Sequence to fold (956 residues):
Amino acid sequence: MNKKQVLNLTGAALVTVAGVTVANENVKADVKTTTDNTQTQQVKSQTADQQAQAKVDQAQSNVNSASQATSAAQAQLDSVNAANSAAQADVNSQQAIVNDAQAKVDAATSSVSTAQDAETKAQQNADQATPANIQEAQDAITNQETQISKDTDAINDANKAVSDAQSTVDAAQKKVNDATTARDNQQKNVDAANDAVKNAQAILDNSDQAKKQAQDALNQANQKVAADTTAVNNKQTDVNNAAEAKENADEALKNANDAQTSAQKNKDAKQAIADEASAALANANAAVKDAQTKVDAINDKLANFNTITLPAGYKDDLIAYYNYFGNSSYNQAEANNLAQDLLKYRDQAMSQNKFKDNLSDDRVVDIDNLNSTDRAELSQFVASLINQVRTQMGTNLVISSPAADDYAEQVSQNYNKDNWNSADNGKHDQDALNNATNQLNINWNGENMGLDQSIFTTDYTVLTDGTKLPTGNKQTINDLKHLIYDDFISMMFDDADSAWGHATNFAGIDNFAAEKQAVGFSLDKFYNTHYDLVEANQKVEENSYTLPSINELTQKLADTKDDLSIKQTDQASKRKANEDAQNALSSANQVLVAAQNDVKDKTATAQKANDNLTTAQSDLATLQNQLSADQANQKQAKTTFDSFDADLATKQANLQKATDSLKAEQGRLAIAQADLDNANKALSDANNNLAQKKQVVENDNETLKVDNDKLVQLQNNLSDLQNAPKLLAAAKEQVATAQKALADAQETYNVANDKLTSLKQTAASTAANVSKAQQVLAEAKNNEDAAKEALDQAQQALTELRQKEALAKQVAEEQAKLAAEKEAKDNGYHIENNQVVDAKGNSVNGWTVKGNQIVSPTNATVDPAVSVTTNVSVNSKGQVQPQTSVTTNDVKTVVATESANPVSVATVQTREQYKQQLKSNNQLPQTGNNDSAVLSLTGVALAAMLSLFGIKKREY
Fold:
């Protein structure tokens, strides 16, 4: 709010508090206000002040409460924000775990696919591993080795052809070199003949200078011939030495090639022996591994043979409970007590009877389509558990047979046909049992069932011992045996709810049990397990199985170990033979490599010797040609020099002869050039032929590589065929391992994803809490702002009220003082004998003396009666103050009356001055006049305030 509004409100409030009506009329300045009226005003103000203060206190309380609510809302928002951040962090962290788990599931899925592909190939290999195919593979290897030998021979022939072609190239190159030399020498002959023509012309001209030049030329020719002869003789010695070195190198190369051929044949023979020994060792290794696998499997079964041990006292208490039903004094309460007594063995039995996993049972089966072999194995496992109990109970043992298995399977099919789910109705389907009896002519004695209908259909099934079986109809035999064992333990030691009927069935103490019993196991479509006990008649006993036992496994282990020992002995023999063969092959390879390296060295040496001989022969030919040319030049120089002494006719004849010789030499130059061209063409053809021969070698080497690779493939194929059973078993084991890894990875993913879903729900909830907390905080802040606004208004109202009260108090005090002064003046109150008396000297009741002043009953202090004029004025600060002008002995004194809360006043004037001013202005004073008026006020509020004092225009 602005200042103007405050003042306007304050002014109006002052008018109301004072209870005075302000009118623009002419009244007397001396106003009388009674004490009762002042007290009434004070009571009203006091009540209003208390009410305003109560409103301020309530508003402050509201602000405090709103502030606390805001703080609480902010704290709550901080808390839910922290919870939301933590929840989102948990989601992000769990999302990373889920992503990693999904990656592992993908990798495991890929591994399963790879393993299944390998299993398919292994199965195909096993299908092809017939003796005929194995022999065919061995023959193929033999044929391939023969082909490789042929490839090697072809390479050797091709290398010889390359060597021959290289010799042809070398010879052609020599011819080119010779032809080039001949052409160059013939060019020199032409140049010499041309010079001879010039010399013959000079001789004919009989020039002394020409004769001297001829003598010099002859001398030089003689020196050149002598030098050429020496060089030719030296080079001939080099040629003879190079020829001898080449002959020796060629002989060494021939011997090296013969040694390489012999080493290759020896290596091939050793290779065949080594291959045979290696194959024999591989078969022996496979046989040992197979025997070792059997030993390990039996050891695993012995170490993990599942047993049932009855706690001490359980046998007697179970028999006592069963026999009590035939007691003549049978009492249901006592029977219940006996039934409950058996439960005391439960924890001990659960603790001492734990299922043991068998790695050999980790093969995966389809539980919706169990074959007869799998059902037989599971039935034998059930029979083994029952017989362990019956041995300790001293009752008849059961057998397991194909007929008993067929009966149990028929019962499950009848249950399925009747759509009978015992887990829902809690009953056995006796029609299914009786129909199976009629269908198979086998009498049933009893049926125990495990109501496991939720198994494999939920995320996982938790067994009694806490094991989680994975979901899906693809399960291992080990897991199914674990389920059976779990059923068995529950039926034997936690069967009070069924009156221990399952336990007495398995224990064989039922009076209705046949003397000879068999048991069969099956699963119906609801995944309820059936343990059907039947009478072991001749049909049931036929082809009964030998049940697994510790003694049988021990004997089987001894036999298997003996077989393993025999195979290990054979393996050691085959290993020794293979080591010898491999060592011999290694030695043969070393000899062959050495021979091949020697051939390479000798070939290089022979090639170098051949190159040296060729170079030496080429150099000798060059020198011989040079000697011939220089001898011809010598002869020509001698002839030229002698010609200077001939007669004119002879000189003319020599010129003609030189001219004819030039033409002849030019003809021979053309022939030399043609010979060089032909030699270059022959060299080009020889180089082309050499390139072709080298390409043949390259092709033959590639063929040898391909055939060697094929040999390795054939050898691997033979090894696969010979080890097909082992490879197939390994592939199946790898598939099972990969599937288990996939199931574990999927389970880990499911658990992680479920947790992620839960965390996301939590995060969504915390986010919603944040939104709600933000709304609550916003509302709390709005309420706090409103409460503060209300507090400001209440405080403003209280301030305004207190201002009104202060002004009202000043007005009352000033009015009382004016009234007292008027009363004292009108009645001549003065001091006599320290008492207040009136003009007649009468004592004035209620008035007292204070110093030189008198005090009215209203506590207004005034001066004794003198010539006094009282007025009210506004000082320079805008404060209203009453003033008194006192005249004593014609001396005027103006005194301003002060109070705790002074009232604004104007300029001080005497009555006469005031009259004179009115006369000069020809007007009466009005509220709002400036210095010319009695009061100079600023604003409506001050005008209202002065009106409360009762200040009005005085009449004269």
DSSP finds 19 helices and 16 strands in the chain. The mean pLDDT is 82. The first helix runs from residue 3 to 18. Residues 239 and 615 are 9 Å apart (CA to CA).
